[in-house]
Write a structure and sequence with these properties.
Length: 292
């Protein structure tokens, strides 16, 4: 952790909805005139698309579990060191993973499924903002979570997560539903061993729970809407950020407390909740950093 150069990380599985929370933070940064250094978790994958496919085939032949969730499939030492370096110096290296040819053209003519070269980011940003799969990883050899000042988990119930992933990957990335299902199955071991343990270390978790039937996510025709959901917001230590639950209950109509550190809100209030909860936290992080 660093008061001088704060690090904020959002972590969650593929299809969890971390990008939605990221966009909400972008609005907060804009309103507060905060200049973030934005890092995407995909840029810390160890292998490009072709090499990753080869590694997956090799693991299948050897009877091993291997996926983008796997510790060995990612440069987690590099990720932890990036958080640490930024906290100490306000600078870091960055590269991009190219998701499509169109994105590659915007970045300077790179092929889909490859990485851009690493580049050094000069000083001048106010905080580091990470969104990806491994922002809260802790193992015997690497501790990414240690270097975050605010760590957020986005964790819808698993059936909803699968629905969101299937719809996103078929609609936006051109995959077939059966291929996405196969990816979900292949990643399940690492989902349990790598992804879910991170939510023990997160400062604040957002878990969306639909109020409609999602019993079979593999045949669902649409994603439950925000108004068809509740969102559970759990604060690991409410004292860390001086959370005022009475204020939250008054501002978020229809909300209620389910535990001493947990508030449940109507899904349609999620954007407002993010603004109310995180704007003062970001303001304080920036104020503290500028006091040095």
């Amino acid at each position: 952790m660093s008061k001088m150069h704060p690090v904020i990380a959002i972590t969650g599985s593929s299809g969890a909805g971390t990008t939605t929370v990221k966009h909400a933070f972008e609005h907060i940064f804009f309103r507060l005139q905060v200049r973030p250094l934005v890092l995407e978790g995909d840029s810390f994958h160890r292998y490009d698309r072709v090499a990753m496919a080869e590694q997956i085939n090799k693991a299948n032949q050897e009877g091993r579990h291997f996926s983008h969730f796997s510790l060995g499939a990612n440069l987690l030492d590099e990720l932890a060191n990036t958080f640490k370096q930024y906290g100490e110096t306000g600078t870091a290296k960055r590269r991009y993973y190219v998701h499509s040819d169109a994105e590659g053209a915007e970045l300077g003519g790179y092929k889909s499924g490859t990485f851009t070269p690493w580049e050094e980011i000069p000083k001048g940003t106010d905080l580091l903002f990470y969104e990806g799969l491994h922002g809260g990883v802790r193992t015997d050899t690497v501790d990414v979570a240690r270097y975050t000042d605010l760590l957020i988990g986005v964790v819808p119930i698993v059936n909803l997560e699968w629905i969101q992933k299937i719809h996103r990957d078929t609609a936006e990335r051109g995959y077939k539903a059966e291929d996405v299902t196969e990816v979900i199955l292949r990643r399940m071991f690492d989902y349990v061993k790598v992804i879910t343990p991170q939510f023990t270390h997160t400062d604040i978790n957002f878990q969306r729970v639909p109020t409609v039937d999602t019993s079979n996510p593999f045949i669902s025709r649409d994603i439950p809407t925000a108004d068809e959901s509740f969102v559970i917001i759990r604060f690991r230590d409410p004292r860390k950020f001086d959370i005022d639950f009475k204020y939250l209950l008054a501002m978020l109509h229809g909300s209620f407390m389910s535990r001493y550190n947990t508030i449940v809100i109507p899904g349609g209030k999620t954007g407002l909740a993010i603004e109310i909860i995180f704007r003062p936290i970001v303001e304080k992080l920036i104020a503290d950093s500028r006091s040095f």
